[in-house]
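User: I'm curious what two different proteins look like when written out as structure tokens. Can you demonstrate?

Assistant: Sure. I'll show them one after the other, since each token string lines up with its own sequence. Here's the first protein:
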Amino acid sequence: VAVPATTDLSGGNTSDNKFHSFVFNLTSTLGGTKLNQFAFHFQDFKNEILSVTDQPNIVFPTVQIGQNANVPQATLERKYQLRDDFSWVKGAHSLKTGVNFINTDLGGFFFFGARGHQVTFFDDPLTIRNNTNGLYPQGFATPGAVRQITFSDGAGNHDQTLRQLALYLQDDWKVSSRFTLNLGLRWDANIGNLPDQTKNRTILLLQRLNHPLARSITSDPEKLSRTTPSLTEFQPRFGFAYDPKGDGRMVIRGGYGIFYDQLFQNLTLFSLTQSNPELLQTALTLTKNSVGSGQ
């Protein structure tokens, strides 16, 4: 609810969350210097933000009633994860390698903007009912009391499957009693993280523009249809720890690494809705500038 509040405590919507999670771990010691850790994780998440009514969204300057203008929304997420890490202590080396795979099925929908009718008045309810400013002799029946009427409808689905794969190898090498090197390499692939842009309505409009910037965005079909950001996300890591006197009272540490982040998921969801055969849009807008004109 906004501050100051313009709705009741429900905000015009309900919110329901269901979450289930299952984890299985297996740790195995192999020969005293080797350790293997395997994990399987299943997760199911369902969130629904639904309107408290199917009546229009009624907006006054300081209050609004009816459905929340940004519902309904839903998020459906089913995730499977397999992970294995293997550690091996061999002399001055502490080696570790592993693989992590996550399959995520995303679903749901959202409607940013009232689905159905939204009616906006020039003044607050008491001002209109009591005609305190002299503009509403017939109260709410005064012609032209409404500033704007909009009607929006369509679909806002965003179904997507993501597959995340990661591999790594690292070595903590105790070069001497005073000096330790930390060496590592990681590789990530976010498979299916990008939606195919070839049917994105924004891209289709840009393709019709004779402008250098528009052509630079839309001229490469391979980039538009690519669904995996990159398969070359190699990320080296380097670190060290140095004890100048060997007494543990002062340690100098340093490190360097390359790290790749993931795309902000909302960007891909918005793009997916733009690529669907049907999308939520405003089909009708009627607007007036002053009280007393129109119906």
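Here's a second, unrelated protein for contrast:
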Amino acid sequence: LGNYNTTINATKAFYNGSTTTKKVNAYELATDPTLSSPSTASDQGGTTGGWGETWDFTANIQDVDSDNVTVQLWADLGSNFQLLNTTTCTSCSSSTPITFLQTFNRTQIGNRAYKFNATDSRNYTNQSITQNFTIEKDNTLAVFVVGNGISINREDSATGLLAIEIQDTDRGNLVASSGVNGSGFVTTDTAGFDGGTTNQTNSTGQLNIYFNPTCSYSAATQRWKGGVAGDEFYKDSNISNRSLDVLGQLKNNLLTPEQGQTFNSSNLINLNATISTDCPVQEANLTSAAAQFR
């Protein structure tokens, strides 16, 4: 490799020999730049990570001719390969690692491919093999805001606010954007959870669940939890269980004596009443209610 001189002369029988001609640096032997060990790693490590993570794309570059080398990172994010990043290596006569830090957006989730291209100042080029990586939903953290220990009347249309903040941990605990799907879950019998009440986060990343207990919920201290559920761009997460009190409404019905009846003061008066609740069908066999007649 390098520059070479060229010397030429000619001889033939019955001819005078030619002069000897020498050209200094008549030509040069050069090589393509080399690419080796292409790899990628997300913040969590490996070839799988969230779209909000910072990804390292690295390859070793060498040009033994000491040419400047333009290094490019290309990726197929679902619509053919596109140039993501580029840099110039000016000291790559020995193997030199080149790293690109790359981020993506939530529309690029899926199984993807990448490759490197190296082109030196002579326009000699080389390309790495194509390798795969997977962009997945971002990890989330659900943070309790309000709604622990509150009491909600079951009768009529009373509601209680259960509020949770949603954070995107792949992007450094930045609050997730509005429109993230979430659900709040409340136990119906102090043990089994209901199917959930859905809503979306607001502009501050807060998920507000307005819980209106019906007759499906027993009057008791119930547990609740909530967070991201079934969102297209964010992984599910829940806060740890919190509690709330569902308050039923007792209803009295005096059966005897009938209104307007007259009794002799020396006689015993039989007092009889029924006690029911705001959910008479579900709680038809009400027990342990304390009744006081005056």
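A detail about the second structure: DSSP finds no helices and 22 strands in the chain.
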